[in-house]
Design brief:
Oligomer: homodimer
Strand order of the largest sheet of chain A: 2-3-1-4-5
Order of helices and strands of chain A: HHEHEHEHHHEHHHEH
Number of strands of chain A: 5
CATH superfamily of chain A: P-loop containing nucleotide triphosphate hydrolases
Strand content of chain A: 5-15%
Chain lengths: ~270, ~270
């Protein structure tokens, strides 16, 4: 039977129609069971992260993408909060500014890559350069269309050098997004999250879907696969992301390193 | 009755004799009660951190110092693991190298300061420049002796600009350090933490105590106080650090920000 991760992964080169995906889908997982399983996954992650940190020879990069209010911040909060912050670095990529604009678009991405032994989390990423940039014509097609290949080569190189890459696209329906924006307007503890600019992006919904489809088709690779997460239900989203990451870390066979020299002769005086 | 934080703080300008401190001291706190209290403190911290993040106008800087094996990493692991890594950045300062050596000693420190809305944790810090540097004569006295004032002025400026600074010195006895080093030698899952160089630093124990004493006397200020934590008992150390941080964050009166514009007229279409 296929695991949850296997159901969520985008097979390299396959056509994807995000607009056809049921964002409520939960693959038969029940909410109560999901809560227990999330807790177990966070414990697994915490243990695996400690070994990754002790080993200090490889790194893990988690990329989160999704339309506004899809739950990128919420996923980090609910899935990553059990991790030791000493071994985690979250980078939120905004509109490039200052010296970021004086370099190629992958420059700031490379700079933010996690160091050996740690987990890097990208809240948005270089994929904005084939998403928002494409949707709003911030660069000509001749420029952004080359980026799929550039990104693949960049990620391949990272992966060959020891960075395990996992990419998640959180997908909510347009109705769910409206509901979440309304909550941000109504709940005083959420007002700070509301942005009128975000809500205007709704006019570009279909253009974003096209851009996501091409990104998924071209950039889900063996060495850096995309997972598409139906994210209307936050509990399922959290479970699914934690499940995939824990599974991938387990397959890395992380072990506490053996000492380089013989310790048996050492005396503490 | 004095709070735990009040008992642990070093009054500005007071003489301190670290060598006279009982590193087993727990101020009457019981171990079982401490575990429950630590859990509550982590929940408080998590909630306060979220408000700090939402407010995004101020930052918090936690400095951790202590001799090898005093528990700096363990404190981060046990106290900070409940925090959302999106709002926390841990920086471990090692022996300066590369471009760090081509700048003054505070340059890399300033660069690593937490951005508004976040908590920065320094695992070692600029205080190494009046500790290891002094103990091993890595700079002449005429250089390091000016640093107490430089550090105070630097921290005062940070604090005036909106960074709340808390500094913790974790203190273990020489016997406890030997015990912890032995554990690192004996336990295969801890071998990776053992460093022969660390164990050789034991020869300088008294010189470190003198350096700590002067640091505490000169650099515990109203705007950036030192707290000295008896740290032989890990459970007490974790409780004490979490208690101080949670208390300080509570006094910051962090609130979810009010919207800049009237949201009642906004319609999501």
């Amino acid at each position: 039977m296929a695991t949850l991760a296997e159901k969520l992964i985008v097979a390299p080169g396959s056509k994807f129609k995000l607009g056809k995906l049921d964002a409520d889908r939960t693959f038969g997982v029940q909410k109560a069971a999901a809560a227990r399983k999330l807790e177990r996954n966070i414990e697994r992650l915490s243990e695996l992260q400690y070994r990754l940190y002790a080993e200090a020879r490889r790194a893990v990069l988690v990329v989160l993408q999704g339309i506004d209010a899809a739950g990128k911040d919420g996923t980090i909060r609910h899935v990553m909060t059990g991790l030791n912050p000493q071994g985690v670095r979250v980078t939120s990529f905004k509109v490039p500014e200052g010296e970021e604009r004086r370099h190629d678009y992958l420059w700031r991405i490379h700079r933010a890559c996690p160091e050996w032994g740690s987990i890097g989390i990208f809240n948005r990423s270089h994929y904005e350069d084939v998403l928002v940039v494409r949707v709003h014509n911030l660069a000509p097609k001749s420029v952004w269309s080359k980026r799929y290949r550039q990104i693949n080569e960049f990620e391949r190189s990272l992966s060959e050098c020891g960075v395990t890459i996992l990419k998640f696209l959180l997908y909510i329906s347009k109705e769910e997004q409206a509901k979440r924006f309304e909550e941000r307007l109504d709940d005083p503890s959420k007002n700070w999250k509301f942005s009128a600019a975000d809500s205007r992006e709704r006019d570009y919904w279909d253009a974003y879907l096209d851009a996501y489809d091409e990104m998924l088709e071209k950039c889900s690779t063996q060495y850096a696969p995309w997972y598409v997460i139906p994210a209307n239900r936050k509990w399922f989203r959290n479970l699914a992301v934690s499940d995939v990451i824990a599974g991938v870390l387990e397959r890395m066979k992380l072990e506490f390193p053996k000492p380089a020299t013989d310790l048996s002769a050492v005396k503490i005086t």
